Amino acid sequence: xxxxxxxxxxxxxxxxxxxxxxxxxxxxxxxxxxxxxxxxxxxxxxxxxxxxxxxxxxxxxxxxxxxxxxxxxxxxxxx
Length: 79
What we know:
- There is one protein chain.
- The protein has one helix at 33-52; strands at residues 6-12, 18-24, 62-64, 76-78.
- It is of the alpha+beta class and 79 residues long.
- It has a four-stranded antiparallel β-sheet with strand order 1-2-4-3, with helices on one face.
- Strand 1 (6-12) and strand 2 (18-24) form a beta hairpin.
- The model has no long low-confidence stretch (mean pLDDT 87).
């Protein structure tokens, strides 16, 4: 699936658990990598905060910023 700023890849485990891998899209209008990293950090912090006060949001299982040499070559969030 493709959104405005991300690709979304479903991950289905053998036990029926479903995750989504959200990978940041790159194109000519993408902001600088430093800003992309800040946006991802803010999204993760927001989801974690909302979850902590009982609002149902996707659980973040992990994320990698571009600055940390992502193994897929792009920043991503596993949720």
